[in-house]
Fold each of these.
Amino acid sequence: MKQKKMRRPELQKSVKVRMYFMLACFIVCLIGLIGRVAYLKTVHGEEYEAQAKVQQINRYDTVITPNRGNIVDRNDQALAVSVAIYNVVLDPLVLSQNNATTQAETISTLCTYFPELQYDTLQYYISPVSEGSEEINLNNHWKYLVKGIEQDEKDELEALNLKGVYYEQTSRRAYPLSDIGAHAIGFIRGDTSWGLESYYNDYMSGETGRSFILYEQGNSITYQDYDAKDGSTLVTTIDYMMQQYAEQAVAESQEMWPCEKTVAIVMDPNTGEVFAMAESDPYDLNDPSTPLAMMDTEENIAIWEAMTTEEQVNYLNNMWKCFTVSSTYEPGSVFKPMVVAAALEEGIISMSDTFYCGGSVTISGMEIGCHLASGHGIIDVEEVLAQSCNMGMIQIAEEMGAEIFYEYQKEFGFGELTGIDIGGEASASSLLHSVSALGATELATSSFGQTFNATSIQIISAMAALINGGNIIEPHLVSHILDSSGNVVYENKNEVIRKVISEETSDTLRLALKATVDHGTGTKIAIPGYSIGCKTGTGEQGDRTRDDLWALTHIAYFPAENPEYLVMGLMYMPETYTDGVQSTAPLTKSIIENIIKYKNMEPTVDVLETTSTGDETVVLPDYTGSVTFDVVNDLDARGLTYTVVGTGNTVVNQIPKATTGVTRGSEIILYVEKAESDSGTIPVPNVIGKTYDEANEALVNAGFTVIYSGSELGVVTSQSPQYGISMSAGESVELVFELQYVEEIE
């Protein structure tokens, strides 16, 4: 059956009906929407308008930066501080809603306080400039105008009640002492941080606060603040005065004997507290990106500016790091007391045992020498340490064996982190021989501190254990931490990590090392009236085919009977080698003398007893065949004077002969000749005690140039090389002048 088709007039009528219906529905909806808007406007208009403003403004809350915690020394001297500063901020929308007079007054006031601001620019900020559908000015609710104004200026401006002007709190880090203690304290700048600033960052950071701009009743603008919580304060173990003494001694030593790095550490051996930690190449903590050492001459500035960015960054990173904890080297003879302590502890030797030093020994086909080529002869344990005899140490280590040696080396902390509270510490674990690798040669060389590496902090920590009763104590730079209310939130308990030797062994070594200062290699640091123990060290570094790679060390403690201070001086890679006895002594002695004065320490020994030569007898070694330089150092250490006859640097005869007993203070005659290896042709004259003019004339007439330090008004107290050493014409002799005065003793 066919479907009946609709006729055209009927179709048109149906379409019209549908259109009218849809139009009617749209009109009804529109009327309803208008009615709803009218209702909301009438009934809830003010409420919704206020909410809209709050929502609009509250999108731009601000962060309140806390003050970073301070760093102070043990006596509350500020080392690093943070002060509140403020950024001046403009809200263009808020200012634009005020009348023209208020706008003009606000802008004029800002331009008066801050001449760098331009009136037209600020006026533009509050003008309704549109870009597309967005008002690019008035939608910016947080426009920084000036950053980093001080508290007093902020308070003055805030009292004027400027409309639309707000103050964002932040802080500025400052270091009042500039470069003092730079490598220990470190700095923080953006994401870069070093030293204590980095290690204790979580304690010092504090907690941020927030500040909200709100509309309240009557559409008035108010603030809602959640205060920041300031960071905690580090109370360090550093003593500002001792730190200054260490810095001064390092600077003077570096000037006299330029080195790749010069270091000084002062520690309490009983607690591990570090009183001072100084290094050469300091930098201004307030401007750490400017290397002071590269800014001293136009030549150095040109070198710095010619560096690539990568080269400058590498230089700065190397400058910022703390050599004391992060760099390793072969310690040399300062390691010897630990070996002796281990042998005593295990009952392998006694202090009365004797050893023979003939100047050298061949082990597994390798000849190993003592610093005194002619040898020390027969000496006991105390003299092995006092004269720093390598041959005695080799024999002690041989009796000990590799396993016991390795055990105590590790027990004394070598090859492991000390745990000091500063970043970047190196363990040097990969730079020690394993016990299986300690063959006869390795054991022999390791016995006097060669062929393995250590850090300065490991060495001084091991020495602390040697003299404090045998306790390994974690070294540290922070004693406790105080929160912003003054409550202790962290405290270092100075806990003993382990006991490595007995008190008896420690007592024995502590007193035995006094001999090093009394008549051994450490006589240069003797101070009349004060009992000091010491060990010197001269360590070859790296390539043994070279003779210019050295680490020279003095490590001393006082009073020797009950040590309160442990002082270490290091000259790493000096440009010109002298020796570990001569060059490092002034560095260490200067610090000790200043501490004695600072702490007003009374003498512990009768001055007459320590300065008297008495009738003490010294048995002479055989110096024939030895280098003159080494012989005169040995004679000086034994309290003997000398005269050199001939030209050259090899001793061919001596009077009195070897094994002869002479009174301390006696004169020894050395006959020298020029060997094939000698380059020297002119003997250096003796100018000790002479004035500047007298010394300069004698040396210049002999064919030498003069380098001096100290006061020209004084007299020569030391010379290097010592007299009698032969050198080529034109070479330099270094003199130290000191003013002479008589000190009154009550």
Note: The longest helix spans residues 8-58.
Amino acid sequence: MQPPYVLAVSSCLIAALAAAQTPQPSPVASEPAEKPPAAEAPASQIGGLRFVDVAEVTIVNVDVGVTDRNGPVVGLTKDDFEVFQDGKLQDLTNFYLFTRASAAPDATAGPTPTPAPAQPTPAPAFEPPPREPRFLAVYVDNENITPFNRNRVLNKTNDFLRSFLKPPDKAMIVSYQRSLKVQQPFTSDPEECVEALRLLRTYTGGRTEVNSSRRQIEDAINNYADKGGSMEQALGDARAFAREGRNNLMFTVGGIKELIGMMSGLPGKKSVIYVSDGLPMRPGLELFYGIQEKYSDPGVISQTMDFDATDLFRSLVTTANASSVTLYTIDARGLEAELGSEAENRVARSTLAASVARTNYQDSLVYMAQQTGGMAIINSNDVASGLEKIANDLQTYYSLGYRLVPSGQDRSHVVSVKVKGHPDYRLTYQKRFIEKSLATRIGDRVMSGLSFDLEDNPLAIEIRTGEPMPSSAGRWLLPVEISVPIEKIALIPDGRELVGYVMAYYAARDDEGRQSDLQRTEAALRIPEAEYERAKVGTYTISATLLLEPGMYRISVGVRDQLTNQAGYATVRKPVHPEEKAK
């Protein structure tokens, strides 16, 4: 039976063709004017779900790990903490202690004195909510690691996952081989993750080739200097190495940002353990220092500024903080990073060059972790000890909540946390967060739906796809219908009609990881007031046309009722003549 009220809205999504880097969704800067204003419940609402007052429910939760020389510090109370946003002290509304010993928050936040026999046991000051799942991605960067170092770390990672991973928490295994590969989607089964890590051992680490190329240039620099060759020859080789290194780094950082974008719409605590042999903050820096030593020319180092990658890492941590994703980093080289030569070197590297290389490749890992509230495990062959520290940080922390007065826009805020009287304590937390508009948060959920199942559909939306039709340049037009039960949509009187407003968000991603940008369509539903009882049993449909390359697609959709702020999400998979692509 054809629904009595159907709105056809034609749109096009074009899947990206470039295999080098998947485009990231752009944050939505502002929302269309709402009817009525979001701060007030709809007047004379008919049908629909309950009104969600965004201004009332916006609580910022800052997760703070506190450690001393003996490990995690528990037993602190709400009064021990001071939280500042943009330099202003905040009143805490929520305070919970999460520990490894319990699956739920510890509401007591420390030992409670035993009451006198005649006194009743006091109730907790803060009633803990059910804990949301923790989402952890183990990211193995095969392009920037050697097989030996990788396998040594993975042996200990297996034990870590078996100890750490328990429902409702979920972990996924991701690798990077010139592009992002999801080896194991989110699961609560540690053995599935261990099996995915086992399969990663078959890949050849890309850093082996980079190290070999660097050694050849180091040998060439020594030969140039020993034979009276021109410094320009040495600089030319170093610049070529640095230029290629920075270009590769752009794709490496892009892969990490792609994973963060996939996780941005997930609820709860989200973390990434990034494993590599380090990433250069200034590609080729050690080569320029080697040239400086050989030719005694201090001006050589100034040329490294042309290849400085600080902007790439700054962009990465901004993306992570905007998505509330914490980065933990592991330098898989361990203590070998401090040596002046590797076993396969023909010529020992100078002590200065070795020290510069170690610092250059580790500074980025430290920066990524510190700026997102995580920690970096460097200069340690005891990876098990480092993973234990990460487990403590993930599972033992204080959640400090304070009320945010929403601005309705995407806005960055600086957060600072102190423990009174304990400057010796080490605190880990995200020092910056992005206040997101409701439109941006819904968009994030839709983009995460391209990769993960999100069971959150109070509006009971459904997606139907038609058959693809040939278009130009080898692309196909895919008809899509997004249906919402009319009784789920809030309506308000407008003369002799009832009117409601919905916003549809949608995007598409194929199995090769290429995805479209997030698209939005606003629509108004109008029903004669006298016909509402008959109409409410039907559905309201938004029709879209997606322009896609051949492939197997996952289409993610979110619909927001603009009168109540309720949103629902759904996904569907659809082949767009993938057999045509193979011809």
Note: The chain has a mean pLDDT of 83.
Amino acid sequence: MGMKRRNFLLFLGASAGSVALNSLASPPRPGTSMAFSGEALAATPNGMSFSPVKLPIPLGIENLSKDQQISDYSRFTVQDDMVLPDGFTYDVIAAWGDSVGNSRFGYNNDYLSFVETGPNEGFLTVNFEYISGATWAQTYPQVIGKDLPLEEIKGKGEIDVFALEEGDELKEKCVAIAKEMMTDLGIGIISLRRNNNGQWVRTNSNADRRINGISGLEDGNYVSATGPAIAVFTKENKLGYDDGLGSRIIGTFDNCAGGTSPWGTVFSAEENYQNHLYEPVMADGSSYSPSKMPFKLADDSEHGGGNALGYASNKYGWMVEVDPANPNDYGTKHSWLGRYRHEAVGFNVQAGKRLAIYSGCDRRGGHLYKFVSDNTVRTPQDKANSRLLENGMLYGAKFYPNGTGKWVALTPDTPVDPILPSQVAGGMITLPNPNREEGGIIKVTDDAEAKTFQRQFRTLGDIYQGNNTEKQGAILIDAHFAATAAGITTTARPEDTIIGPDGTLFIAFTSGSPGGDGGPDTDIFQGPNGETPYEYGWIVKLIEDENEPAAMSFRWESLALGGEPAEGGAGFANPDNLEVDQGGNVWMVTDISTSKQNNAIPSRIEGSNDNKTPVSQSALRGLFGNNSIWFISTSGDNAGEAYPFGIGPMETECTGPFFTQDQQTLFLAVQHPGEVHGIRQNGASESRKFAVKTTDGEEFMQTRTVPLGSNWPGKGRNDPPKPAVVAIRRLDNQSISV
């Protein structure tokens, strides 16, 4: 088989004939749903309710001979559309620029949550992560219907807008652009109802609204906060910048993944806020001046929106809770959950026990965290559970190679015991700058320097300034760097956390390669044959001791699922968001970087003469084509097999899969179509060569036709590409899952 099925079954704790993974059964969500009438569709012969789609590379599940694989895969045409199995379709629910309340649907939609308020109706909450600079600029006038001086400002390079005088013409232009950028980020809430044809349509209720990067700037709809960081926000005589707003916060932006609580609220993760603000802080947790990160527009990126608008950086990078049904709720940032590049959030909510909430920091070398409340849960569905986040403790996970681990509290009393550079791929860590008067961070590449840091600071409280509450607030604000100082394990970009009803936590670690932020622990994050670094990613299972949410120790197991079938992989790369259906099966979407998708691989060897080397795993991701959607069976004869369910349009990432209660709809967010080439002009495409392998490792050459840019979702000739949310369903409106 293409993937190491036996190992996967052992990982799941199941045998091929068993109903595997009761722990993966989807926990109840708030709300109800009324099923459409009709008998359930019979499953396909392989035990699934769909026939897998064809990917650019052969898979073991197809059971094709070597000659058949070479014949069938010598040519492949990539499509600029959502490719689904026969008998399935999708409806576009909303796309960038559509009206939402008194604003618009934002850009690069990510996490989705559907909180059902009655039969066949509810609120869809949508995150908006970032702007794809060149494509956003190219299509903005056509989609939004107005012009911005984008080219003029782009030509000026970096601009310290914050330092310019009020009334300055350049400042006014930059502020106008920054406001438009921030409008397209944040959170959106739209009301939906399913009609008699099974299609979801918008109902435009009074609760439909946007919570974006400028909420509160002019309309007074500030985001609120809880926890010790408030002591830093409100203290006088800060070492750094004071925005004058106290505990009030202007908006939310760079919202990536998230989670839905059992009590019907949505948690939205502020991830790459460092694109718009200078991430490091002063020793008291206060921000540097907005001038620290100038405003800049470029084709490949844009940054410094916080510079133009005068934002305090320590107020961003949090987990934001919002009640979609409350039209007056513009979000609360719970500082006990920590400030870092948040990704998804998992809830362990058991009556009579303390609440546990898990989240990961999506950077190379990021950490896994758990918040534990001081008080206990009475009823999991009670909205009063939000108050439990006001008091508790944040912990970081320390993994050991023997499959055990412990949780380390991020408190002023925690001993300093830094990660050593020699422990991580890439050989570099980031620590708080030992010059505390200067503040910020340093990059450390020598173990001796890390040990000197440990001798200088005995506890985390020695690193930060203020009274006890202020120090705790500063630690939470500087969570990633404080965690590294405390010896929390550096990991491989944790991009999703999802919990089964028994408390088992599943984590998608997307990529094991190092980078400018650091790298993963090489004793923990290894490929199937001990490789480090390993690019293709893992899914890790974490079980708290005695299944206790507040446990301080745990067991873990990992499995490298990504990679080519010839090497034991399932045929995908970079697992990202996870969803679990009611049958306990796992649905997963991939996150191959746009810059790598469909890049030609004419040879697996590069260089010449004595300098020939194998093509890197990172580059080989071009083989996998567009990002895709996968179904991983966990029961019956096909347990442990992975099947491709769908393929995204050109230059996209499919994110935020979320099932309705009746399993008849899979909501999916499709972000950044055309991110590299922009609008596909006049149906342009090109032919590329790929050195593909059969499932038993024989290399052959594939000619692949690749569209240049995208016209999705309109699909008309020269239509502008727009991020959009779709509802996937069967044509007969029966259950999607098995």
Note: The CA atoms of residues 39 and 734 lie 8 Å apart.
